[in-house]
Design goal:
Structural class of chain A: alpha/beta
Oligomer: homodimer
Distance between the termini of chain A: 12 Å
Pfam family, one (chains A, B): Lipase_GDSL
Largest sheet of chain A: 5 strands, parallel
Strand content of chain A: 5-15%
Number of domains of chain A: 1
CATH class of chain A: Alpha Beta
Shape of chain A: globular
Order of helices and strands of chain A: EHHEHEHEHHHEHHHH
CATH topology of chain A: Rossmann fold
Strand order of the largest sheet of chain A: 2-1-3-4-5
Family (chains A, B): Belongs to the 'GDSL' lipolytic enzyme family.
GO molecular function (chains A, B): hydrolase activity, acting on ester bonds
Largest interface: A-B, 54 and 53 residues
Keywords (chains A, B): Hydrolase
Protein name (chains A, B): SGNH hydrolase-type esterase domain-containing protein
Chain lengths: 243, 243
């Protein structure tokens, strides 16, 4: 049975199988070695994620039917919605930063209890380009952005702190993206969601982080013989050692 | 638990999560409604597929641990390798057309026995652009293409015939692609594998065919409340009816 890598997060996870998306790139990278299971929920914050987690990752969720076998890694990628400004148009998504930390810890605890050996990677929210946010129709009435880069940074810091407490690897996407030239436009298409370049940054960070935790093409077995391993005169022979 | 759509095939399936790929596009299309499970094996013909099918789709395969619950559809997409010319460089992949038909029938029987209610879609091999094949390094020594469009057409016809006998929907990709202008270059990048345009043709055909078999965004339930369904003053209320 193939190992599974579960992507649990908000819209940036839900849309990760669009053209150039980081989720599809992961599925392609692990094409013969692991299944990438998409569990992205657009608009969700950690409060809603916690409300849904039993159904998403519990006994009837991923793996299903009491199973869930083979899950080797889970990415937990929330915060972009928690960090929505508390008194603006996306206020209903806002979660205070202290609750965000508590919720993240609870999500980690749930995953650890379900799969004690699993690799959990926390991913911070990305930075925000306010100009991009202001182009969104629902921000135009007030003229005030629903998200700010300072708030995203505070939640990124909180996420890194939870990862430290829990001893987990973390991808500091907020800082990583801001290292790139013209990141506001090159990496973000609407001030929040990724362009192909932004997607590629996250894809590479996830592959690197998984690799450091021994989840890589080098460590995972390939499912069934490769055609390059077939004996030209007796191709079926290659199956003998594997099946 | 989310329904699963399994893609079983050769390299055109294995690489279907590359940028612009038909598999990734399906996963994105069904992002909150179904899991798309990738089971592509580069270079495989129906003979090898049949040798591997118990491991791929059997009790320890997709779904795993005796499960396999929730599989609603399987695409079966072989023939491009079976149709390799029998006395040229890819001869080790060749399977005679009569055996191809028998093997396809056996694959269909296996899937029907495992999941009696599942939608099975047969996909014919794509057409071949010989010029594109001749640019491949391993065809340069002999100067003869390893695949021809006539052979692909014969296997496509055989695939359609098996679908008819078994009462299954079939995507006649060999004919469909050849309806497009400049299909040799617009749809195929090496005379066999798809460009983004070729991928998009197949993606749309699969969505259409699944839809006719009642596997669509209209019939599948959405996993968890959409953020547009949240009550602004009491977002968690939306979960009450679902969890």
């Amino acid at each position: 049975m193939r190992p599974k890598i579960v992507l649990f997060g908000d819209s940036i996870t839900e849309e990760s199988f669009r053209e150039g998306g980081w989720g599809a790139a992961l599925a392609n990278h692990f094409t013969r070695t692991a299944d990438v299971v998409l569990r992205g929920y657009s608009g969700y914050n950690t409060r809603w994620a916690l409300r849904a987690i039993e159904r998403v990752l519990g006994a009837e969720g991923v793996g299903g039917g009491g199973g869930g076998e083979g899950v080797v890694a889970v990415t937990v990628f929330f915060g972009a919605n928690d960090a929505a400004v508390h008194d603006r148009v996306s206020a209903f998504q806002h979660v205070p930063v202290d609750e965000y930390k508590l919720n993240l810890r609870s999500i980690v605890s749930f995953v650890k209890k379900r799969w004690p050996e699993v690799v959990i990677i926390l991913i911070t929210p990305p930075p925000i380009d306010v100009e991009g946010r202001l182009r969104e129709p629902y921000n135009k009435t007030s003229g005030l952005p629903d998200r700010t880069n300072e708030a995203a940074g505070a939640y990124a810091k909180a996420c890194i702190s939870v990862a430290g407490e829990c001893g987990l690897p973390v991808i500091d996407l907020w800082s990583r993206i801001q290292q790139l030239d013209d990141w506001e436009k090159s990496c973000l298409r609407d001030g929040l969601h990724f362009t192909c370049i932004g997607n590629d940054v996250l894809f590479k960070e996830v592959v690197d982080t998984l690799g450091k935790e021994s989840v890589s093409l080098e460590t995972l077995p390939v499912d069934l013989p490769l055609s390059s391993e077939m004996y030209p005169n007796d191709p079926l022979k290659a199956f003998e050692s594997q099946i």
